Amino acid sequence: MTTAQTINSDGNGITDETGETADLFATGAGHVNPAGAMDPSLVYDIQFEDYVWYLCGLGYSDEENLQTAFMSVDCNQFGRIELEQLNYPSIAVTLSYAITREVIKRTVTNVRPEPTSYTAEVSLTAQSGVTVSVSPSTLDFDTMGETKSFEVTFTVEASTIVEPGDAFQGSLKWVSTTQSPVVVVASPLRLVFA
């Protein structure tokens, strides 16, 4: 996901079935880039337990966890994580007029052998009324396999007027080459980032 290309072979944005520029709901992270996947720079590692915590957070019953994860899990003892907090390259959060701020934590692992520094660049549909900040905005790695965590804070301004179905899209890109798709959708009660 982090190395996918968001442009086509002509150097233009990926188009949908109508010939218009496709949104992230149609393209996902973009076209697979096999060469880029060989050197992703940063990876979002997920362990098996993370998925089980995620299933518990989704409200799966112990029986559903047994069928899905092939293990018996008591979520009350095992633990839960919310959908937004799964350590995944894309980011999904929900905001509403009552909840105008959400903080998402991610952890990345450096897979480059040399010391590398990455700076966060955020783009989001202009005039969305949603601000996105990353802390720390720079990640410095000294060795391969080193991990760093960062937080992404989404804030919707009180004066923002949205209609159900509105979507604000963009990305969080770790310069040098790593990016995460970001989408904001408005529902009658909530704004949704994905």
TrEMBL record:
The keyword Cytoplasm does not apply. PANTHER family: PROPROTEIN CONVERTASE SUBTILISIN/KEXIN (PTHR10795). Transmembrane segments: none annotated. Pfam families: fn3_6. This is Subtilisin-like protease fibronectin type-III domain-containing protein. Residues 85-180 form the Subtilisin-like protease fibronectin type-III domain. Keywords: Signal. InterPro entries: Peptidase_S8/S53_dom_sf, SBT, Subtilisin-like_FN3.
